Amino acid sequence: MPTLKYSKQREAIKEFLMTRQDHPTADDIYLKIREQFPHISLGTVYRNLALLSEIGEINKLTIGDGSDHFDGNISPHQHFICKKCNKIIDLKVDSAEYVEKVASEFSGHIDRCTSYFYGICGECLDQK
Ligand code: ZN
Ligand code: MN
Question: What is the per-residue burial (b if ≥16 Cβ within 10 Å, else e) of 31-66?
Answer without folding.
Answer: ebbeeeeeebeeebbeebbeebbeeebbbbbeeeee
